[in-house]
Amino acid sequence: MATKLRARRLRRTSPTSESRLVQFLLIAIALAFMGVILLLPLYAVFHEAFIKGVGAFFAALGEKDAQAAIRLTLLVAAIAVPLNVAFGLAASWAIAKFEFKGKAFLITLIDLPFSVSPVISGLVYVLLFGAGSFLGPWLKSYGIEVLFALPGIVLATIFVTFPFVARELIPLMQDQGTGDEEAALSLGANGWQTFFRVTLPNIKWGLLYGVLLCNARAMGEFGAVAVVSGKIRGQTTTMPLQVEMLYNEYNASAAFALASLLALLALVTLVLKTALEWRFGNEIAAGH
Amino acid sequence: MEVRVQNVRKEFDRFPALHDVSLDIRSGELIALLGPSGSGKTTLLRLIAGLEMPTQGKIFFGDTDASEKTVQERNIGFVFQHYALFRHMTILENISFGLKVRPRSSRPPAGEIRRRALELLDLVQLSGLEKRYPSQLSGGQRQRVALARALAIEPAVLLLDEPFGALDAQVRRELRKWLREIHDRTGHTTVFVTHDQEEALELSDRLCVMSQGKIEQVGTPDTVYDHPTSPFVFGFIGESSTLPVTVENGELWVGGRAIGIPAGDASPGEARLFFRPHDVDLIEADASLAGVVSTARRVGGTRRVELEIGGAGHLVEVDLPFDHPAGEKTRLAFRPRRWKLFPAG
Fold it and tell me: Of A33, A116, A126, B49, which one has the fewest beta carbons inside 10 Å?
């Protein structure tokens, strides 16, 4: 009996590996779960998008309001992502390379957008720039509309995607320390030369990774943008908002045609992310 | 270029790292800053480099006040303990970095930069590795590249922060010799930080022993070793044994026994006697330091014996040849050949 048990145990390759049955069960559960939760919906999106044929699909995308939504989404991302890159670089530089009071607080603050519901973030901007606020009417007197216009959407998007680049870079830069920068300075390089020739190359893959995630979120953001945009058709609707509006109007195939574009973006991001991880895994892993 | 550190004080968050330190570094000398961790030696080096700014005091390079100058303006070569090579650049690019970042007016032409970088690579005996990346080199090779990179800008002063600290003992000894050769050939004023006294004694023209943010003693390795001016230096440099003694009637007493050592001009009262364990004579006289052997270990070519002196149980170490018959005895009497007396406390 005892020998039988031992023999059974020996068949396992390592102390932490489970029996074949358990392995199979675990893998099966994981795959089934992923199939139902992730793959099926993805299939449904593309299926619905093409249900009326390829012609209808492109017609839906070519529609005036859809075009406007795509343009707006790209524009918002084109403004929000570079701003967040600049901010993320500045914040992680400051946090990783200097000692100052309130550093821990700043790190916590950077995480805030992750922990706040996007709808709340949107509402904050409504309170700040709405008709009853102080800032809103004042800006309006100079002809600057924030709410229900591009600036509001950009602000909300920046807020929500604010942590991505910084979160990626802070641990990476902390890990690398200030040695390389000090070496560059001691060799006579000025601040910009040090940044562009030493710091930036050291963090480029981590930065790219952060930009990728930031961009994906910026294009897909719904909650915060929905609150501040006012959903003026053809003017302040981004792609996710347009999808929702079309769907609510029982125009499912057009809604899914646009949704498939967003899904495609997600897939491309995923592929790039995987490629980056595969190629530069060590450097990116340093950031986690 | 001589460097004068004048009454420099440095605080980090109100915590003083250096108290009123002054040091004259001569042109062309190789000087070691030696001390335990937390003694302020690295802080002093970084202050000279301009990587830190003094809270008080001034630092002169020659006759010019460098204390207000930035690290770039000081034109120093700095070698870091962990090399700090630029990992995305080849060895050649690393070495030529300092020349490439110069403003156009003072930058040599590309061909000249390359020629000089290759020359330096040859100086540090790494010819042929110019296309490699730092990650493809061993620790010792990386530190050589770091030195070549620092030399490329023709620095006024060469500063090395524990340059061999991250290397294993064998490579460290090799590089030590090699650094001395490079120094003799290039003649740069060189300051290096180390906590390894053997390294400091072997390598430097002069050494500056530091403790708790102060300079304890500056002198040639022989002076510091033979004539330590403080109990700390005696204890820190080389092996040492110490014993509390009483000065009375112009003689030293331990536990009511004269030990046969004249007190010289020491004032009567309590004092501390310091001597080197290897610098003792075994004698049979009454006036000696006598004790019971508590442990005896053989360390290479010597036998280190720990003796319990007097009734108070003070332990001192003495070295005997490993085959000395006294090593077997349980009771030994000796007298130090050279010693030093410091006030108690």
Answer: A33
Co-location of A135 and A237 in the same domain? yes
Query: Using an 8 Å Cβ cutoff, are B90 and B133 in contact?
Result: yes
Do A229 and A155 share a structural domain? yes
Q: A115 and A201: one domain?
A: yes
| CB contact A184 to B (< 8 Å) | yes
Mean residue pLDDT across chain B: 90
Map B221-280 to HEC letters: HHHHHHCCCCHHHHHHCCCCEEEEEEEECCEEEECCEEEEEECCCCCCEEEEEEECCCCE
Residues in Cβ contact with B2 at an 8 Å cutoff, skipping those fewer than 6 apart: B24, B25, B26, B27, B61, B62, B189
Q: Are B15 and B71 in contact (CB under 8 A)?
A: no
Shortest distance, CA A82 to any CA of chain B (angstroms): 25
Range of the domain at A31: 16-49
Cα B18 from Cα B8, distance rounded (Å) = 7
- B251-254 vs B289-299, strand pairing mode: unpaired
Q: How many domains does chain A have?
A: 2
User: For residue A63, what is the domain's CATH number?
Assistant: 1.10.3720.10
Residues A159, A272 share a domain: yes
Nearest Cα to A227, choosing from A86, A113, A130? Answer: A130
Is A9 or B52 the better-scoring residue by pLDDT? B52
Mark yes or no for CB contact A197/B82 under 8 Å. no
Q: Is there a domain that residue A152 lies in?
A: yes
Kind and range of the H or E element at B125? Answer: none
Q: Pick the residue of B42, B53, B97 with the most A CBs within 10 A to test the interface with A by mutation.
A: B97
Statement to judge: residues A22 and A57 lie in one domain: no
Alpha carbon of A161: minimum distance to chain B alpha carbons (Å)? 30
The answer to whether position A4 is within a domain reads no
Q: Is residue A1 part of a domain?
A: no
C-alpha to C-alpha distance for B20 and B42, rounded to whole angstroms = 15
The 3 state secondary structure assigned to A106-167 is: HHHHHHHHHHCCHHHHHHHHHHHHCCCCCHHHHHHHCCCCCCCCHHHHHHHHHHHHCHHHHH
The complex's ipTM?
0.84
Residue A170 sits in the same domain as residue A96: yes
pLDDT digit string, tens, across residues A210-231: 999 999 999 999 999 999 998 8
Query: Chain B interface residues facing chain A, Cβ-Cβ under 8 Å?
Result: 49, 51, 70-72, 75-78, 80, 82, 84-88, 97-98, 101-102, 146, 149-150, 152-153
Which of B76, B87, B88 is the closest to A186 by Cβ?
A: B76
Choose between B312 and A74: higher pLDDT: A74
Q: Are residues A61 and A171 in the same domain?
A: yes
Residue B178 has pLDDT above 80, yes or no: yes
Flag whether A3 is in a domain: no
* pLDDT tier at A68, thresholds 50, 70, 90: very high
